[in-house]
């Protein structure tokens, strides 16, 4: 008996010794990893995306794929994180990354921030005024992590489903006192020679004498980019050429398939405009050829717009499309695990999205995603009420899966049509009965349909604007453990600069 006990003690000590050695080795390995500097950085930003948007998209993904085969696992095998595990097969890629943290999003003088503020904070590590792009409170230009990476010799890229001159990409590649100065932002992209520029907004690069242009001068920036040696793809007419293009070392590219924003994912015509994942993949093809590595910022810009509209289906589909871009970055990470850093963050939350909403004060624990499956178009771009009520009810059935309305829903919709017929599409939906918020660029009818769809799914919205919520951040790869815990959004840029060993401001 004594010998058995003694043997057990010896075995226990041996096991403990081995465990301690393993822990020490792990600590050394972790410390070694922390000391390394990433060669390839993906900074993916879901505009307007907080935990509620990402969680809802994941629930919907699970709902849609309950009986489908896990194609990701078949393609990538067991190395694709936990995809072999049944319980993880429908999780968003962003939720499978190793490290998690959170960021506060306040501006310099505001609790609820604007996109220019949050993007500037993430890009430069400095708080700014509401509409300022990469300038401090004294209007001094701030250097972004992207520009600092370029100065270090790395290749750089900006990708967005919004206009490429919109607030988020602009904060990484330009410095202007107002985010509305998109013509000036476009010029600064040319001056800063960012290697890969892909997104909407051709209207800010066309000369002023073009009917589609928003420029007030006659500078043709596409020609100026071409003169600098860029491969230029001006419109969706050149999408096939963009897709067929094989990047060569040293190439630079600009591609703007749309005059304004790229279409919502739910409305996107695959033959005319690539997905955000496809845009990211082409960027990798180009930028990876630089021996010094690359920094690429990828924005799911239209998550924000859909949430402003309180359009639940469109919000989900754009979030899922954004997550496909995360998958694309992760596939590259698998090929370069010791050199790659992936950062996935929102800049702020939009819409006050709630994952349960009851009629009136009814007490309930319920959410129903089935009505969302029937939605085939966004309410902003995929549908428009023109005064033909019979056509509206046809569209309601075909585009939104609503064949029958309750008495309350029909009353609200008829009131919205009455208001829009009388005052036009810019009328304020509050004049119906103050039932819900309305984004200024959509009509009372569009807003009403959006909220009927949301309420049928028991999804709630508190606002048509931004909110002050804490935003999650997920990271993976070299240096990823640095982005954990409760942070300010300015910390993200500072940590990234430290990993790159560059100075910001």
Write a short abstract of this structure.
With 505 residues, the chain is of the alpha/beta class.
Please tell me what the overall shape is: globular
Number of helices: 17
What is the highest CATH level, the class of the largest domain?
Answer: Alpha Beta
Poorly predicted segments: 1-35, 80-88
Task: Provide the descriptors you would attach to this structure in a database record.
505 residues, 10-stranded mixed sheet, alpha/beta, 2 domains, Alkaline Phosphatase, subunit A, two-stranded antiparallel ribbon, disordered N terminus, 13% strand, 40% helix
Secondary structure blueprint with pairings:
Blueprint: H1 2-35, E1 40-46, H2 51-64, H3 71-76, E2 99-104, H4 115-124, H5 145-152, E3 155-163, H6 167-173, H7 182-192, E4 196-200, H8 221-227, E5 231-233, H9 239-244, E6 253-255, H10 276-287, E7 294-300, H11 302-308, H12 312-335, E8 340-346, E9 349-350, E10 353-354, H13 370-373, H14 389-400, H15 407-423, H16 444-456, E11 460-461, E12 466-467, E13 471-477, E14 485-488, H17 489-500
Parallel strand pairs: 1-7, 1-8, 2-14, 3-4, 3-7, 4-6, 5-6
Antiparallel strand pairs: 2-13, 8-13, 9-12, 10-11
Organism: Halanaerobium congolense
Binding site for Zn(2+): 47, 304, 308, 347-348, 466
Family: Belongs to the alkaline phosphatase family.
